[in-house]
Amino acid sequence: MRRSVDEHLEAILGRVTALPAFDQPLMEALGLVLCEDVVSGLSLPGFDNSAMDGYAVQAGDLAGATQDEPITLPVVGEFRAGHSEPIVVTPGTCVRIMTGAQMPRGADSVVPVEWTDGGTVNVRIAQQPAPGASVRRAGEDVQAGEQVLDRDTVLGPRQIAVLAAVGRARVKARPRPRVVVVSTGAELREPGSRLGEGQIYDSNSYTMAACARNAGAVVYRVGIVDDDPKRIMDTLSDQLVRADLVITTGGVSMGAYDVVKEELSKLGSVDFPQVAMQPGKPQGFGVLGEDEVPIFTLPGNPVSAYVSFEVFVRPALRKLMGQMPYRRSPVRGVALDGFNSPSGRRQFVRAAATSGDEGWMASTVGGHGSHLLGGLSRANALIVVPEDVTAVRAGDEVELMLLDEETR
Known about the structure:
Layout: E1 2-3, H1 5-15, E2 22-25, E3 38-39, E4 49-50, E5 54-57, E6 71-79, E7 94-97, E8 109-112, E9 122-125, E10 135-136, E11 147-149, H2 157-165, E12 170-173, E13 178-184, E14 188-189, E15 200-201, H3 204-214, E16 218-225, H4 229-239, E17 245-249, H5 259-265, E18 270-271, E19 274-275, E20 277-278, E21 284-288, E22 293-298, H6 302-321, E23 331-335, E24 339-340, E25 346-356, E26 359-364, H7 373-378, E27 381-385, E28 391-392, E29 397-402
Helix pairs in contact: 1-6, 3-6
C-alpha cells in the first residue's frame, strides 16, 4: 500500500477522536482545552478599593493644595487589604489606606502617599486629586453574570488567573492523553549501560517520550523490548490499560526481523503503508484492543521517527486534546543553500532557521541520512519540499515547519 503524506495523515485523523472532558483541578488544567463557557458569579473587583498606598479623602477638601501651601487633614483610621473598619470619612478628615483595601464610606478619591508627608495622626497633602482618582471601582473589570472564557479556549497562565479570580477551583476540560512509548530491537541498550559488540543506545524511546511530553501528553516510557514476537505483543497488551495512544519504533520495514509489522499485521486493525516521504517511508497506524487505542508504529531510524512524530503523531495528540489547528502552521522562508530532493516524495530537510527584517532564512544542517542525530540536534525547523520538486537552490522560497516554541 502506498500513500501520500496527506492521505496518511487524513487516515490517522479520521480514526482519532477527542478525549471526553471532565472536571479538572485548576492547576491541572493548564495547557488543556476548556469544554465549557465560564460565566463569573461575581464582579471584579468585588468592591471599590484603593489602587495605591495613600489616603482616602473627599477630593473637595483639598481644593487649592500645593507644595508650597499644603492642606492638613486629621487621619481618623487605617484600612488594610483584607480588613475593613466601621469608619466614615467625613468632610475635613481622611483615612490612611493600603493598596487593595476597601474604600471607606464617604471617601471618593485616594491621594498617593508620595503627595504627602506620610503622617499618621495628621497628614499634610500637597496636591488635590481628581474625584475618583486611584480608586478601582467594583465591577469595572468583570460584571457578575458576564462570560469570561469561551469554550475551546486553551488554558494558559492568563486564563488560569481569571478562573481563580472568579472563584473557580475546577473547570471542565479535555485531559492530557496518556502515551505509552516502546522501543523494539535486540541491538538496543539503555543509556548508561555498557555496550557490547554491535549494540547501540536506545535514543528513540527517549526522543518519542520527550516529544509526546512536549506536546502536552502524560508519558509512560516502557523502554526496550527485544525482537521476540510474544514479548512484543504481551507488552502492548499489558500497556493498553493505561494508554490513550501507543508509539513504537522499529520493526516496521521490509526486513526478515521486522516483527512489529509481522505480528500486528495479523490483527487486521493496523495498516503498514509506504508513505511517499523522506525520511519516514515505512509507517504503521491502526488501533488495538476493545477500546481501539490508536497505535503508531514508527521507523527505527531516529530522524525518521522524529519527523514521523512531528508530521503524524503530534496532530493526532492535538486532536485527542481538542486543540486546533491539528498541524503546525507553516511559514514561508528563503533557503540559504541548495540541495536535491527525490522525485515523488515529500522531503523534510533539517534546517536552522532565523527570522529578521527580510523574513525567515533557513540553512540545512547535517546530512540527509535518517540516522544523523547530530544535525537534528542543531535544527529548529524542517524545510518541506513538495513531491514534484527535485532541487532547491540557494535563494529559493521554501516552506518551513518550525519546531520550537520560541521560533514560532
